[in-house]
Amino acid sequence: MKSIMGGRAGISLLVVLLMPAALLLMAAKAPSAKAQTEATISGTVTAGGNPVEEWRVIAYGADGSIKGSDRTNASGRYVIGGLEAA
Q1: Whole domain around residue 80: which residue ranges?
Q2: Is the CB of residue 71 less than 8 Å from the CB of residue 54?
Q3: pLDDT of residue 44
Q4: Is the pTM of this model over 0.70?
Q5: How many domains does the chain have?
Q6: Same-domain check for residues 47 and 78
Q7: What b/e sequence results for 6-43 when a residue is b if at least 16 CB atoms lie within 10 Å of its CB, and e otherwise?
Q8: What are the distances in angstroms from CA 30 to CA 11, 33, 63, 79?
Q9: Is the pLDDT of residue 57 over 60?
Q10: Are residues 47 and 80 in the same domain?
């Protein structure tokens, strides 16, 4: 396939034509990330390497108030969600 302008002139014309499109794409602002407002903590409670079932795990705020809680399952796992992100 031959360029209308031939050789380097054809390449230069292509670069000149594509440059404005590239600049517009770079200038397009990416959507901003929303601030995370909720956090979740999770873990496993064990004693002697064995899971501890039916223990209450409590998340406290900096002011000492209870922010959330969960009971461990048969595997010792707990998940406390809906916490205020720091």
Answers
A1: 38-84
A2: yes
A3: 96
A4: no
A5: 2
A6: yes
A7: eeeeeeeeeeeeeeeeeeeeeeeeeeeeeeeeeeeeee
A8: 30, 9, 38, 33
A9: yes
A10: yes
